[in-house]
Structures are given as C-alpha cells and as structure tokens.
C-alpha cells in the first residue's frame, strides 16, 4: 500500500462548511481541535447549555434536512473563536461563539435564514473538546478517494468527495480497501490511529457542497452499485502526534 493524505478538514460548526488545514496536532481520544465543537440547535432540542451533552444530529441544523446550509461560506478563527458567514463572497454575519453577544448575532442570522426548517428559536451550543459528530465517540473520518472515483462510475457523474464531510481524504488505495480496515492500526505522521467503524451514508451526501442543491442520490447509488450504503471509515486517535497533508498512511 502506497497511500497518502491529500487534505485535512475540520468543521468548527456542525452542518457548515469545511476548513482546510495543512497540518494538525492530534491528541489521543480526541477529535481534530474545534471539529464540530459548535452546533446550531433547534429551540426544541433538549440541550442544557450549562452542562452540554452529546445529542444526535436530528436536534441541530444540518445539511441532510437544511441543504441550503451548504451554500454558505464560513471561516472560523481559533484565537478569537469567531465565526464569519459569507454568501457569494460577502460577509452577512460574524460573531464570537463563546460570547453571548456573538452567539446572539449568529442565532439571529439563522432564525431568518432557516426560518421554515427551525423548530423553535435557534441557539448556539458548545460541546468543547467532544464535538457534535454523528456518533458519540471521538472519531475522525477517512474518505478513500479511490472509492469515490469508483462510485462515479455508477453515478455517471463527477462526485465531489467533500459531499462526505470527511476529516482526512486519502489517495493511493484500492477502491473500497477501507472496508477491510476495522480493527487495524494506522500510522500517519507521528500519530497512531485505530480503525473502528465503516461509515453508513445518509441523504446529506445528495447535496452539492457548493450550491446547496440536492442533485444526486448517493445512498441509492451506493446500494445499487455495491450492495451497501457505506463510504469511508471512522478512526480513533490512539497515540497523539502531528499529521500533515502529503503524509504517508501506513497500515499495520
């Protein structure tokens, strides 16, 4: 196997756009720093902001149910914990997600932008180091670009790998090789990881990550072409270290 990381991504706010990282320091049993730390919860969500806990994605604004989220361009600044939201390159909202004033600005924006999809007034929630990932575990997600290219053969169109909202995009593998990884250890850079679960895919992958339009039927095509609706693998950091784009992926 001669595989490498082509890009690293995090999503500071669940459901919003990715940020590309050139390198990142990983800690055992933790997510990429700030990945899904924040989310925009429905007003009806059973979230205690004084003592937040993990909840399923149904309680938050997310691409599967609000596809137009993908049309927003966002940028998150670690040092100031500030989120900037843009549309067609123009700033339309900006706020510090750790301050009440900043959260109010962001909440007011989504109250208008996603009015018809919201259940109650939106609220910014912060889960700290745990993150509002789709599973209640400190998993990073790896997407095998060879699998995505093989899926394109079935779909008959180009499939942007960013539809799968992965943390690490990896090339140089056989198509679907990641399906054989569960239980095995990987080394990337100076970090070690354990493959834990294959990732099942939902209708969020039908949404174009640039336009916010539902234009494909990815889970249907996965089932039609391969007999499953999976793409990618969850991994857990077992030994902290630094990883970077172009790092080799070594499978033990």
List the helices and strands and how they pair.
Layout: E1 3-10, E2 19-21, E3 23-26, E4 38-41, E5 73-77, E6 82-87, E7 90-96, H1 100-113, E8 123-126, E9 139-144, H2 145-155, E10 168-171, E11 185-188, E12 191-200, H3 218-226, E13 230-239, E14 241-244, E15 248-251
Parallel strand pairs: 9-10
Antiparallel strand pairs: 1-2, 1-10, 1-15, 3-14, 4-8, 5-6, 6-7, 9-13, 11-12, 11-15, 12-13
Question: What features would you describe in this structure?
Answer:
The structure is a single chain. This protein is α+β, with helices and mostly antiparallel strands and 252 residues long. The chain folds into two domains: 3-30 and 135-251, PK beta-barrel domain-like (M1 Pyruvate Kinase, Domain 3, Beta Barrel), CATH 2.40.33.20; 38-126, no CATH class. The protein has helices at 100-113, 145-155, 218-226, and strands at 3-10, 19-21, 23-26, 38-41, 73-77, 82-87, 90-96, 123-126, 139-144, 168-171, 185-188, 191-200, 230-239, 241-244, 248-251. The chain has a seven-stranded mixed β-barrel with strand order 1-10-9-13-12-11-15. A three-stranded antiparallel sheet has the order 5-6-7.
């Amino acid at each position: 196997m001669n595989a490498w990381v082509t890009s690293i991504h995090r999503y500071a706010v669940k459901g919003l756009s990715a940020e590309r990282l050139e390198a990142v320091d990983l800690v055992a049993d933790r997510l990429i720093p700030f990945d899904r730390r924040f989310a925009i919860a429905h007003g009806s969500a059973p979230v205690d902001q004084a003592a937040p806990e993990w909840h399923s994605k149904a309680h938050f604004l997310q691409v599967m149910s609000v596809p137009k989220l993908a049309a927003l361009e966002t940028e998150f600044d670690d040092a100031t914990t500030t989120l900037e939201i843009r549309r067609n390159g123009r700033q339309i909202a900006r706020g510090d997600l750790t301050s009440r004033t900043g959260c109010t600005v962001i909440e007011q924006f989504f109250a208008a932008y996603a009015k018809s999809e919201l259940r109650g007034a939106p609220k910014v929630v912060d889960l700290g180091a745990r993150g509002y990932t789709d599973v209640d575990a400190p998993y990073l997600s790896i997407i095998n670009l060879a699998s995505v290219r093989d899926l394109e053969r079935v779909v008959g169109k180009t499939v942007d790998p960013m539809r799968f909202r992965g943390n690490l995009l990896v090339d140089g593998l056989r198509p679907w090789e990641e399906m054989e990884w569960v239980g095995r250890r990987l080394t990337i850079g100076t970090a070690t990881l354990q493959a834990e679960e294959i990732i099942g895919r939902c209708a969020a992958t039908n949404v174009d990550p640039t336009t916010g339009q539902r234009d494909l039927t990815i889970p249907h095509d996965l089932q039609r072409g391969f007999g499953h609706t999976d793409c990618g693998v969850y991994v857990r950091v077992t030994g902290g270290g630094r990883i970077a784009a172009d790092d080799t992926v070594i499978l033990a």
